[in-house]
Structure formats: structure tokens, C-alpha cells
């Protein structure tokens, strides 16, 4: 019975984590959409999106995604260096 409860608890935490990940994704997507819309869409007199507005929106999105990817890469690099430094310090002090 304890195994079943542990499995249920594990699935619940997984579901919560997936929900948080999805919520974070939607927040980022909405932020990006709002930011690019505000920067690029200027004319509300026509039913169609102008070519210049579409290009601006695509460039905005691409730039944001590239920036986000670069920040993630730098964060990972920083984390690796921090982990290596912590390991070296632990080895130096004999705590490993």
C-alpha cells in the first residue's frame, strides 16, 4: 500500500511540475506576443496584416527567441563553472 501512495505522490508532483512548466511557457508566449504586437502593429484600419507588420513581428519573435536561447546557454555555462568550483573547493577542504 505504501508503494501505491508513493507512486501517486510522485505522479502528483510530476503533474504539478508539468503544469508549472506549461504555465511558464504560456506566460513567455503571451509576453512575446504582446511585446511584438505593441512594437509592430500600427494600422488598425485594414482587415489584413501589412507585409511590414508581418516582417516586423517575425523579426521581433526571432530576436527574442535567439536572445532567450543565448541567456539559457550562458546560464548553463555559469552553472557548470560554479559546480566545478564547488567540487574543487570540496576536494581542497577534504569534504569530499
TrEMBL record:
Signal peptide: none annotated. InterPro entries: Mito_inner_translocase_sub, Tim10-like, Tim10-like_dom_sf. Residues 17-77 form the Tim10-like domain. Keywords: Chaperone, Disulfide bond, Membrane, Metal-binding, Mitochondrion, Mitochondrion inner membrane, Protein transport, Translocation, Transport, Zinc. SUPFAM superfamilies: Tim10-like. It comes from the Eukaryota. The keyword Zinc applies. It is a peripheral membrane protein. It is found in: Mitochondrion inner membrane. GO terms for cellular component: mitochondrial inner membrane; mitochondrial intermembrane space chaperone complex. It holds the Pfam family zf-Tim10_DDP. GO terms for molecular function: metal ion binding. One of its GO terms (biological process) is protein insertion into mitochondrial inner membrane. Belongs to the small Tim family. Heterohexamer. The twin CX3C motif contains 4 conserved Cys residues that form 2 disulfide bonds in the mitochondrial intermembrane space. PANTHER family: MITOCHONDRIAL IMPORT INNER MEMBRANE TRANSLOCASE SUBUNIT TIM9B. Mitochondrial intermembrane chaperone that participates in the import and insertion of some multi-pass transmembrane proteins into the mitochondrial inner membrane. Also required for the transfer of beta-barrel precursors from the TOM complex to the sorting and assembly machinery (SAM complex) of the outer membrane. Acts as a chaperone-like protein that protects the hydrophobic precursors from aggregation and guide them through the mitochondrial intermembrane space. Mitochondrial intermembrane chaperone that participates in the import and insertion of multi-pass transmembrane proteins into the mitochondrial inner membrane. May also be required for the transfer of beta-barrel precursors from the TOM complex to the sorting and assembly machinery (SAM complex) of the outer membrane. Acts as a chaperone-like protein that protects the hydrophobic precursors from aggregation and guide them through the mitochondrial intermembrane space. This is Mitochondrial import inner membrane translocase subunit. It comes from Musca domestica (House fly).
